[in-house]
Amino acid sequence: MVALDTGSDLFWLPCQCDGCTPPPSSAASAPASFYIPSLSSTSQSVPCNSDFCGLRKECSTTSSCPYKMVYVSADTSSSGFLVEDVLYLSTEDTHPQFLKAQIMFGCGEVQTGSFLDAAAPNGLFGLGVDMISVPSILAQKGLTSNSFSMCFGRDGIGRISFGDQGSSDQEETPLDINQKQ
User: Fold this and answer.
1) I need a surface site. Which of 40, 96, 97, 180 has the fewest CB within 10 A?
2) Where would I find the Peptidase A1 domain in this sequence (predicted)?
């Protein structure tokens, strides 16, 4: 249960942290889960010299690339380091095929603010237009077109489709790209 956010770019998951998500009794309907890079045979740290490393000046020669995302909500942030791993996607054909996509995301070690109050118990999926967002990475690799659609039912459960223009009865919401933010 990750929060979907069109106002930010980074996909991050809580990992290797203490006190970074609400205790199980306060989480709404989904228990918190953590990503553990050492348990994934395909996980790799993103080096400081990567084009995706925005905080190179804060790197040491032996560390992974750090990240820090600060959100509009008062004192709400996530920080940690960047990793690459495989995201498994499925096509929606009559005979679904599974696709392995190497993506980059944040391994969140510290969360603050509303993230401690169940705002994103299992992380945040940034859907913005920067080159580090999952839709942009999928498009750069030629796996999908640079678009996505989301549809939510009355029960709050929904689906996100990458490289999709949506259905003919679906409303459109343009992304407002403000270069100052």
Assistant:
1) 180
2) 1-181
| Buried b or exposed e, range 94-126, using 16+ CB within 10 angstroms | eeeeeeebebbbbbbbebbeebbebbbbbbbbb
pLDDT tens sequence across 29-84: 555 578 889 999 999 999 888 877 877 777 766 578 999 999 887 788 899 999 99
Angstrom distance (rounded) from CA 156 to CA 172: 19
Residue 86 clears pLDDT 90, i.e. is over it: yes
Contact 85, 106 (CB under 8 A): no
Q: Which of 141, 29, 123 is nearest to 67 (CA)?
A: 123
Which bin fits 41, alpha (ψ -120 to 50), beta or left (φ > 0)? alpha
Measured between alpha carbons, how far apart are the two ends of the chain, in Å? 27
Overall number of domains in the chain: 1
In a domain, 87, yes or no: yes
Q: Determine the pLDDT at residue 41.
A: 94
Structural domain includes residue 9: yes
Q: Which residues contact 171 (CB under 8 A, 6 or more apart)?
A: none
